[in-house]
Amino acid sequence: MIKHLFSKKSPSLDNQVEQAKRGDDIVRNEILKQYQPFIAKSVSEVCKRYIDPTKDDEFSIGLLAFDEAIHAYSVDKGSSFLSFARLVIKRKVIDYIRNEQKHPTVASLDEEYYEEEQMENPSEVRAAKDRFQLETESWHRQEEIREFKQQLGQFKLSFEDLIDSSPKHRDARESAVQVARVVYEHEDLREQVLSKGRLPIKDLVDRVEVSKKTLERNRKFIIALILIFHGDYVYLKDYLKGVGL
């Protein structure tokens, strides 16, 4: 047996991830093997059904996503590795499902034809599928909001704070979004927010056409926008585009 994997005091998961990132394939493979149940559960939560690791393609997507999370994770991201990996898995599986819906396979077309052939009213099949897709997307949105709420909590923020601090006028909101983009696009500014949880107002005054007083007033709202830009929030980013932000 490998000594560093089976010692009396096992290394923490974060330490194992760091070893894997440095190229230790033995540790990496052990993590992938040990956390297969976690991967299957995370994929199942997205697909809303039991996932068989030996048969379902979605599990393979989840496994690849977990491996990607190992190489991309950093303790500076502000969340545990498993929380980060769970988010990466869900995003990759959602992307896979969306792509499959856009490009259905021949087998799925045959299956759909067979199902409709067995139904007296084929339109019921299409309606049921449309309803399921809407319910699935609704569930994904709720999951994303729940994850964002958790991340806000790590920065001592809440949705109530955002409601109270959100600029009332559209031009003020657009200005706040532009400030958030400036911070996000400059690594030195972005890291101050992500690692310290504070908006670098002094550094921003010379880079944006917004007063120090306005920056302080919109601080919580701007930080929340930076977290959205930095995170893998598919629906929240779509929402910002939809409202012209």
Distance between the termini: 56 Å
Please count the helical segments: 14
Order of helices and strands: HHHHHHHHHHHHHH
What Rg do the Cα atoms give? 22 Å
Rounded mean pLDDT is 79
How much β-strand is present in the residues? under 5%
Low-confidence stretches: 1-10, 105-120
Q: What is the total tally of β strands? A: 0
Tell the overall outline. Answer: globular
Major pleated sheet: none
Structure in words:
This protein has 245 residues and is mainly alpha-helical. It has 14 helices and no strands. The chain is globular.
Helix-strand layout with pairing:
Blueprint: H1 13-21, H2 25-34, H3 36-47, H4 57-72, H5 81-102, H6 106-118, H7 122-154, H8 159-165, H9 170-185, H10 187-196, H11 201-205, H12 212-217, H13 219-230, H14 234-242
Helix pairs in contact: 1-2, 3-4, 3-5, 4-5, 9-10, 9-13
In brief:
The chain is an all-alpha fold and 245 residues long. The protein has helices spanning 13-21, 25-34, 36-47, 57-72, 81-102, 106-118, 122-154, 159-165, 170-185, 187-196, 201-205, 212-217, 219-230, 234-242.
Structure characteristics:
245 residues, mainly alpha, disordered N terminus, 0% strand, 14 helices
